[in-house]
Amino acid sequence: MSRMGDTGTSGTQGQGGFTEQAQQVSQNLRDLGSQVRDQAREKYNELSGQAQDYYQQGRQKALEVEEGLESYIQEKPLQAVLIAAGVGVLLGVLWKRH
């Protein structure tokens, strides 16, 4: 009979220990989830900043090319028209093949 009493007592303690362990595991998972979320947010902010930098660099480069092209057209309008016509003919020939 004493065996039954011992088993019942350790079973009750086992349930309490199991509940505490389950709560601890649950808290650990919440903490881990928070860490993952924070790291993901940091990485997103970092990549977002890099994307904005690349966009600004590309925009600046496009503006420089546009200004250079405008300057070239103003300095040499006849050559610019002939080059544009040549490019148009070339694209027309290539387009016609497909």
Describe this entry's structure for a reader.
Residues 1-11 have low confidence and may be disordered. The protein has 98 residues and is mainly alpha-helical. The chain has helices at residues 2-75, 77-97. The longest helix is centred in the middle third of the chain and has 74 residues, at 2-75. It is elongated.
Key traits:
98 residues, mainly alpha, 0% strand, elongated, disordered N terminus
Outline of the structure:
The protein has 98 residues and is mainly α. The chain is built from two helices and no strands.
Write the layout of secondary structure elements.
Blueprint: H1 2-75, H2 77-97
Helix pairs in contact: 1-2
Strand-and-helix sequence, N→C? HH
- N- and C-termini, Cα separation: 94 Å
User: Judging from the principal axes of the Cα atoms, what is the shape?
Assistant: elongated
Mean pLDDT: 86
User: What ranges have pLDDT less than 50 throughout 5 or more consecutive residues?
Assistant: 1-11
Number of strands: 0
Determine the strand fraction and express it as a percent band. under 5%
Helix and strand content put the structural class at mainly alpha
- The helix content is over 70%
Described by strand count, sense and barrel closure, the largest sheet is: none
Radius of gyration: 36 Å
Number of continuous helical runs: 2
